[in-house]
Design a protein that fits this description.
The chain is low in regular secondary structure. It has a domain at about 240-425: E3 ubiquitin-protein ligase SopA (Pectate Lyase C-like, 3 Solenoid). The chain has helices spanning about 5-20, 245-255; strands at about 110-115, 130-135, 345-350, 355-360. The strands form two sheets. Strands 1-2 form a two-stranded antiparallel ribbon. Strands 3-4 form a two-stranded antiparallel sheet. A hairpin with a 5-residue loop joins strand 3 and strand 4 (about 355-360). The longest helix is centred in the first third of the chain and has 16 residues, at about 5-20. The protein starts with a helix and ends in a 66-residue tail after the last strand.
């Protein structure tokens, strides 16, 4: 299509939008428009079904309610464009730039595109001459910095390594979306649906997940310590525990999700929780002192200010768990896996949710970590007085600011470990 013809079609489209008699809706369906510039143009309600729009420039254009179903938008520039309620089902947005774009109410579910084989003289809708292409929206590596995506439907979308920093994703539907490695720094996902989403390795910093539904989501490698998860429905496994314990834990999950207005804090001192799979669960604030928890799976669990004093955690899996401000004094963690765990201080907040400037350090006084795996574990500021790290692996661990009075490091591996200034292993 020549630029002259393109401009004529757009002029007629503008007349159509104004209700003029000679106006006609622009229809670029299945056209090859790769590399064309549509900058600052009024393309509201325009049709681009199945069009090749690779590397086009739609910056600052109005594409509200436009039909981009199944379009190839790879590398396309949508900076500051308006795409409210646009149809992007089945489209390819790989490496597209949507920084500052308004995508409120956009539909990005999977799409099934019916494409003619292009045989001359044939009816374009004859089923004998059509084939179907069903695909999910591909938005891998797309830039959506500061984009407005409230209530956007992204079910099953490919969002690997996408940049959502500072984006508004309130009430967005991201069910079954692949968000591996996505940058969610500063993003607002309040009340978003992330059910069964793959969020492995996503970047989480100042991210808001308030009341988000993250049930069955894959959060492997996620650090939620710097995120707001107030009222969030976090993944939880099917518990194999006696009904009384299961009910207490379910009430605790509800207590966490509803910010204490419903449910009840878990109070299970001395209970037998050995072998349970509680990976990824939020057990913050629970009282689990003196519990039998050998071989328990707490990988990726969130246990901020949880009481585990004198508990038996032998050979437990606490890999990548968030244990800020936790009480593990006197705990038996022989051969436990704490690699990548964060066992540092927690910032205390006032009733208004504002940081007070005070911190509550993790307490491991007298804990037994014989032969435990603490590679790359963060123990900054922790009280490790009298703790036993004999034969433990502390490779790459961070112990800066920790209290190491009478701490035992006999035969411990401390390669590349960060120790308090001036501290020397005797």
């Amino acid at each position: 299509m020549t630029p002259d013809l393109l401009l004529k079609i757009l002029k007629v489209h503008e007349n159509w939008l104004k209700g003029a008699n000679k106006g006609k809706r622009a229809n670029f369906s299945h056209q090859n428009l790769a590399g064309m510039s549509f900058k600052k143009m009024n393309l509201k309600l325009a049709q681009f079904t199945g069009a090749d729009l690779r590397f086009c420039d739609f910056s600052e254009s109005d594409l509200s309610e436009a039909d981009l179903y199944g379009a190839n938008l790879r590398g396309t520039n949508f900076q500051k464009a308006i795409l409210t309620r646009a149809d992007l089902r089945g489209s390819c947005l790989e490496s597209a730039n949507m920084s500052g774009a308004n995508l409120t109410g956009v539909d990005m579910r999977s799409g099934r595109l019916i494409i003619s084989k292009g045989q001359p003289g044939k009816d374009p809708v004859s089923t004998a001459d059509l084939y179907q292409s069903s695909k999910e929206s591909n938005m891998s590596k797309v830039s959506l910095t500061g984009a407005r995506l409230a209530r956007t439907i992204l079910i099953g979308a490919q969002l690997t390594d996408a940049d959502f920093s500072d984006a508004d994703l309130q009430e967005a539907v991201l069910e079954k979306a692949d968000m591996t490695g996505a940058n969610l720094t500063g993003a607002n996902l309040t009340s978003a649906s992330l059910v069964k989403a793959n969020m492995k390795g996503a970047i989480i910093k100042n991210t808001c997940f308030r009341h988000a539904d993250m049930n069955d989501a894959d959060l492997a490698g996620l650090d939620l310590a710097d995120a707001d998860i107030t009222g969030a429905n976090l993944p939880r496994p099917t518990l194999v525990a006696k009904p009384s314990i299961q009910q207490v834990l379910n009430d605790h999950f509800l207590w966490i999700r509803e910010s204490g207005s419903q449910g009840a804090r878990a109070n299970l001192p001395g209970e037998d929780l050995a072998g349970l799979d509680l990976s990824g669960c939020n057990l913050s604030g629970a009282d689990l002192n003196r519990c039998a928890m050998q071989n328990i799976n707490l990988e990726n669990a969130i246990m901020v200010m949880t009481n585990l004093a004198n508990s038996l955690l032998r050979q437990g899996n606490l890999q990548n768990a968030i244990l800020e401000g936790i009480n593990l004094s006197g705990a038996d963690m022989v051969q436990a896996n704490l690699s990548g765990a964060k066992i540092n201080a927690v910032d205390l907040k006032g009733p208004d949710g504002i940081h007070t400037g005070r911190q509550w350090p993790a307490n491991l006084v007298g804990a037994n970590l014989f032969k435990a795996n603490l590679t790359n574990t963060c123990l900054t500021g922790a009280n490790l007085s009298g703790a036993n790290f004999e034969s433990a692996d502390l490779t790459g661990a961070d112990l800066r600011g920790a209290n190491l009075s009478d701490t035992c490091f006999t035969n411990a591996k401390l390669t590349d470990a960060h120790l308090p200034e001036g501290f020397k292993i005797s």
